[in-house]
Amino acid sequence: MSEIVVTEDIVGVAMQRLCETHDVRFEPTLWNRPDDLAAALQTAKAIIVRNQTQVTRELIQQASQLRIIARAGAGLDNVDTRAAAEAGVVVSYAPSENSVSVAELVLGLMLSLVRRLPAAWQDTRNGGWDRIGFTGGELFQKTLGIVGLGRIGRLVAQRAAAFGMRLIAHDDFVDSASPQIRELNVELVSLPELLAASDFVSAHVPLTDQTRAMFNSQLFGQMKLSAFFINASRGETVSEIDLLAALRDRRIAGAALDVRTSEPPAIGEFEKLDNVILTPHIGAFTHEAQERVVETVCRDVAAVLSGGEATSVFLIKSR
Ligand code: MLT
């Protein structure tokens, strides 16, 4: 039985080092076999996961030797952080290491939507040369509505500003008077105002009970017919049935989804539409981001197992 269990495909120089110096069970499909996972955790002192392993209260309570849960990424919606705190298990994560990569993907998706890049590539590879048919739009002077002005939302704002976009945002938790927000030149507005004014609406909210399926028919109905919706945050923040209807009925112009309610998703209705771009949750998947993410969590695991302290620790805020 190994002291460290890696349940998803998490690789890199730091992981290599960890495997050379520790007893690591590296099993990228373990997340999908809950019974085997529970058995592996009976003796493990550390578990390293991405977003697919459900680190539940039950699992944590059964893992009596567990000292650290390391999440190779930013979102902690798959880890019961409260149960970990109660059990005295450290939760380490990588809150900012992949933010730039996600923000860059969002800009890429916006350009892909407005210039129809995937369709233009498909057509050209099939022998087409339809310059007029692929006449697109500019980002310049368009309004970007950012729902959630956290780390990634802010990086998206900075990059969109370079394209000459007008920036508005909705976030109940940011202080509009803070120097960080004022520097961004983003106007904070209500959600209905944002939806009505935006040419692009980009979702940057964490998955919580409040945000689950928040992007529903009511919200899509408030967007412009010409607007695009982008989601590189969490699939479960969107009601996929409602989004499908909005896209089919041309209630909005199009959508780009890097995340889905179930991953990998079953091939279904989105794939049939010509106003959708789908990518396989690759926001964080650049070589640079992954090196940083894996370095952070492997360093923390090694530190805790040798009796030291983790440095990138998630702490539950008291309400
Ligand atoms: C994150 O939460 O950091 C990203 O969605 C990437 C991931 O889940 O691996």
Topology:
Layout: E1 4-6, H1 13-21, E2 24-26, H2 34-40, E3 46-49, H3 57-62, E4 68-71, H4 81-87, E5 90-93, H5 99-115, H6 117-125, E6 143-147, H7 151-162, E7 166-170, H8 179-184, E8 187-188, H9 191-197, E9 200-203, H10 217-220, E10 228-231, H11 240-248, E11 254-257, E12 276-278, H12 287-305
Parallel strand pairs: 1-2, 1-3, 3-4, 4-5, 6-7, 6-9, 7-8, 9-10, 10-11, 11-12
D-malate (MLT) binds at residues 50-51, 73-75, 98, 283-284.
Structure description:
The chain has twelve helices and twelve strands. Helix 8 (179-184) links the parallel strand 7 and strand 8 (187-188). By secondary structure, the chain is of the alpha/beta class. It has helices spanning 13-21, 34-40, 57-62, 81-87, 99-115, 117-125, 151-162, 179-184, 191-197, 217-220, 240-248, 287-305, and strands spanning 4-6, 24-26, 46-49, 68-71, 90-93, 143-147, 166-170, 187-188, 200-203, 228-231, 254-257, 276-278. It is globular, with a radius of gyration of 21 Å. It folds into two domains: 4-97 and 287-305, NAD(P)-binding Rossmann-like Domain (Rossmann fold, 3-Layer(aba) Sandwich), CATH 3.40.50; 99-278, 3-Layer(aba) Sandwich (Rossmann fold). The strands form two sheets. A seven-stranded parallel β-sheet has the order 8-7-6-9-10-11-12, sandwiched between helices. D-malate binds at residues 50-51, 73-75, 98, 283-284.
Brief summary:
The chain is an alpha/beta fold and 319 residues long.
